[in-house]
Amino acid sequence: MRLSRLASQAGVTVKGTDPELPLVIRVDSRETQKGEGFVALHGTKVDGHRFIPDVLAKGASLIVCEAAAYQEEWSSLYPQCAFVLTPERCEFGLASLASAYLRSLEHLRETIAITGSVGKTSAKNDTKALLEDYFKLHVAGGNYNTLIGCAVTVLAAPTDTEVMLLEMGANHRGEIAAMVSYLPPTIAAITEVAPAHLESFASLEGVLQAKSEILASKNLRCAVINGDNEMLCTRAEELGLPEVIRFGRRGEVLFARERLSWEKDHFTVRAILTGLDGLSFNLSLPLAGVHQLYPLCCAIAIAGRLGLSSREIAASLPKCRNSAGRGEVRLSESGAAILDECYNASPAAVKASLAAMDSADIPGRRFLILGEMLELGTASVSEHGRIFERALQVSDLLYLFGEEWKNVEGAADYYYDSIDALIEAVDRTRPGEGDVILVKGSRGNHLERVVKALEL
């Protein structure tokens, strides 16, 4: 598929060469390599158009920029490069290109999009693990869950892609709606609706409305939702969707008799799962807690909807693992286990992690290193207060980091104002074999520094 063929459909202009898709496109000029594309975004601090000369000098094969920023001499100076000129902001031009490319994929059977307050990346990773042996699958890498991330993902898809798997996140109302308008899923999944980004959404009802935007896809054939969330189930009924599959302790894809244990250096979750075909099977996986069964069952529901039997799904389950920052267990040289959950934190996610630490038969001490939960708005003090009270019950040693803890009564005795001071305090307690250290906080706390330091 030539770029020029999509350009007319997308309402953009192409100058210079006319490359074939798929294309690898970067949003960071520092990461752009020879032969790759670059999209010049207007960031909050920096305008990406400033870096176009840099990526051209590195041998970029494609530049997406606003038409007003294009310089005519670029095409003659860099004949290897195609220039996509957008009449408006670049992300919308790129999204229009991605939309046209998605429609052009002749072998595409399903476009799957997953969202949720918690668990959406785990559900995406688990879905990938279950589907990749059965379909020509193209999946979003890393944390590509914005409009630009989804567009870049689609434009990199091989032309023989059968299943497109996207992740859609949102900090504000309308963000998921925009993604769905450009890249409408045929299967849309919502892992959970819980307090998160309340600074923007104001209430749990606001979160529900934002996540439900994914169900407005014009191509929707099936919604996969958390069957244990009554608000979400009620909303799905109100929308009169063509097909709804529920997962959880209630619904069509079920888990039951779940239990969590600690086995030397990792958690193990055991449960009985029932697939969409009604067949049950035993599960035993090194997951970070029982709460991880929800994104896993979401993935099982999607796989079942695509025709995989419970037997086929069960055979692929060992590939479903926690990833870095999302429940991966690492061992320090002293033998202490570090539960790395430093990628993100919401009240629901932190409560689930604390429940796992509390219920498992951990032989040593329970260390809790908790960063702040960001973007909670007026609910921040109360939510941090509830987490603090629960953490005191669970922990043998508690460490708090982040400005939001300063407003919680009693938290000052456990608070550290720098990562270095926190690491030194933990080191003085000499964590060793049998001890488990939970490290969890919002991405902005950069607690991965703590994880790396404790590993040494």
Report what the structure shows.
Helices cover 33% and strands 21% of the residues. The chain is globular and about 65 Å long. The chain is α/β, with parallel strands linked by helices. Helix 4 (90-104) packs across helix 6 and helix 13 (347-359) packs parallel to helix 14. The protein has 16 helices and 20 strands.
Q: What's this, in brief?
A:
This protein is of the alpha/beta class and about 450 residues long. It has helices at about 5-10, 50-55, 75, 90-105, 120-130, 145-155, 175-180, 200, 205-210, 230-240, 295-305, 310-315, 345-360, 380-395, 420-430, 450-455, and strands at about 15, 25, 35-40, 60-65, 80-85, 110-115, 135-140, 165, 185-190, 220-225, 245-250, 255-260, 265-275, 280-285, 330, 335-340, 365-370, 395-400, 415, 435-440. A 9-stranded mixed beta sheet has the order 7-8-6-9-10-11-12-13-14, sandwiched between helices. Strands 15-16-20-17-18-19 form a 6-stranded mixed beta sheet, sandwiched between helices.
